[in-house]
Specification:
Elements: H1 21-65, E1 84-85, H2 91-94, H3 97-103, E2 106-110, E3 132-136, E4 152-153, H4 161-176, H5 182-197, H6 199-207, H7 211-220, E5 223-225, E6 231-233
């Protein structure tokens, strides 16, 4: 049970209290391990920081390679304008009787929520809310299953409206539409036959005042072309 002094002599008389050698070893060993663990924790913290920095750089690089999508165009809106008859007072001075009668059977309208979920002639892409089209005044407003084929068209340009309307007259109005009053259908057929037989009116009837006239008529109604090749009513 003898204690060892600092000098190592047994039963030392120097008055300095010494620790058993085994206890001193334990404390030294514990201090060594604490220092070792502190170094490990420091290295781990540095490593985690480096890992965080690398992760941030990776995310930044990915965001640059794959930037978030740009905000899309504003949603299409309808102006709420009521349908307008294609026929105007100037038609009688510029068009043949047949073309005047055709234009009295067609109206300009803008697509509603119901229209964008139905099919229409001349449609190779989706119809959007507020897009302007032309339709038969007799059945174009009916549900799609209750109207004849060719009742509604959505021309992509102002100038193409003329030919679109001629297609509607030749097939839908004269042949297919069961809502057109019999007297009007008979007048369309009779007047067209008469004009085609009269050489002086054939040219006027065939061109219907020309594509420019029909385009100008739409512009007078406030219809414009958009950059995505659709027709719309001007705002305001």
């Amino acid at each position: 049970g003898a204690f060892l002094s600092a000098g190592g002599s047994a039963g030392g008389t120097s008055g300095n209290l010494t620790l058993p050698s085994s206890t001193a070893d334990l404390l030294h060993h514990d201090h060594h391990h604490r220092h070792h663990y502190q170094q490990i924790e420091q290295r781990r913290a540095v490593g985690m920081g480096r890992h965080d920095d690398e992760s941030s750089l990776l995310l930044l690089s990915q965001s640059r390679r794959n930037p978030p999508p740009a905000p899309g165009p504003p949603l299409h809106q309808a102006t709420g304008r009521k349908p307008k008859l294609m026929h105007t007072r100037s038609d009688d001075e510029s068009l043949s009787p047949y073309q005047c009668l055709v234009r009295r059977q067609i109206e300009v309208f803008e697509a509603s929520h119901a229209d964008i979920h139905t099919t229409a002639q001349g449609r190779n892409r989706p119809i959007v809310l507020g897009q302007v089209g032309i339709r038969c005044i007799h059945c174009g407003h009916l549900p799609v299953e209750k109207r004849a084929r060719g009742a509604v068209y959505f021309p992509s340009t102002l100038l193409s409206t003329y030919q679109t309307a001629q297609n509607m007259a030749n097939t839908h109005l004269i042949k297919d539409c069961f809502e057109v009053p019999r007297a009007i259908r008979e007048d369309l057929i009779r007047i067209r036959l008469r004009e085609n037989s009269e050489s002086k009116n054939t040219r006027k009837s065939a061109f219907g005042g020309g594509r420019g006239y029909w385009a100008s008529g739409l512009q007078a109604h406030g219809v414009i072309e958009t950059d995505d090749r659709r027709l719309r009513f001007e705002d305001g």
